[in-house]
Amino acid sequence: MPEFTPITAVPAAVSTVSPPVALPAEPGWRHPRRGISLSEVHGSIAVPGEGASFWRKFRAYWGPGLLVSVGYMDPGNWATDIAGGAKFGYTLLSVVLLSNLFAMLLQHLAVKLGVVTGRDLAQACRDHYSKPVAMVLWVLCEIAIAACDLAEVIGSAIAFNLLFGLPITWGIVLTTFDVLLILLLQSKGFRVIESIVMALIFTIFVCFLYEIIASHPDWVGLAGGLVPRAVVVTNPAMLYVAIGILGATVMPHNLYLHSAIVQVRQIEPTEKGKRSAIKFATIDSTTALGLAFFVNAAILVTAAAAFHGKGYDNVADIADAHKLLTPVLGAGAASVVFAIALLASGQSSTLTGTLAGQVVMEGFLHIKLRPWLRRLVTRLLAVVPAFIVALLYGEKGTGELLVLSQVILSLQLSFAVIPLVLFTNDKLKMGVFVNRPWLRIMAWVVAGIILALNAFLLYQTFAGNE
Q: Which CATH number among 3.30.499.10, 1.20.1740.10, 3.90.1170.30, 2.40.420.20 corresponds to the domain 54-463?
């Protein structure tokens, strides 16, 4: 596969169409690359050379996986995991496990695409498909980002309410001001963002370690819940929550994000250098997604242990779960710890949502907006519907909207997964890095399962059997 000379990073963006950057023609692509992903931080983090130890290289690549894993433990996951645990006990633990395994595979493919081709998924789609198809994919991805941001808005607002007694509507308005925080952090360098996200994830991890200990789960039932059961598909109510968990776990915009942020490292443009980058970036993401699995499983296990079979099977609302944790578990700090973890989850998800929005808009449209303007537009798309629902229906309405946002994410998922699988299976695009036969089969099986589950969900919805 021909090698290409690295290009100089483009200055920070303004709200204009980014000028095309002349790059050599590449086999398998219709057009030369017009620019690079996240140009202000592209290739900004050095990695050690060939003689460095495994751990030194791992430390250099450690970070992007954490940013991606944040999307797998955002407030949307909380709503679906709480609903699944309270209604069905430990049964849907198998869905959480399978979703995380799917995520590990798909994020590995996103890493390969970004490292090998130097394009993120949005740029690849813009080149491969006709303009009308690319625009449809862009709109669908923006809907997914808005749905994810909706979960962050509602989750953070609920956390403010639980910790400080702030009304949900005021909490929703308050979340718009994190635009300033994002702008400040982006100006400090990418390692700062990664470090802050790491601290927030550690907070969430510790909080749920406490929650699991306090809930005294049935360990035998927990282990049995990790085994898939046919009832998950045959029970429409269970399937709806299961697909919500899938949508909340495997996030479509994370595939776009990961294919871009993996290029923040200074990857040596040789076959050996790219193989090393793929190896360590995959270890990074798989390890981080393992932490995300623990958090998601802990939320479901806590809800199952605290509510299922104890007269609280219908608890699907984060606020209700918070109110009931202390009286049900008898642990005085349980509710406070729960709310702190929720706030950390919402704020960390905010960081990655901004980056994903930037990658998608620049990749599909070749338009670069000022970071604060991009964040404000994205946040308003989430704040307005959340604010209206909160005014009309209160906390209950926002809780239901949270679960719905995750189902919307799941419905958008195939439109990101299928192009990713197609591209990484393409010999012309990937060269010697093309997926091996066993990986091709696994990738298409995962894509097929996601597509089939979503089709079944739509059938159940329109047939009125929900």
A: 1.20.1740.10
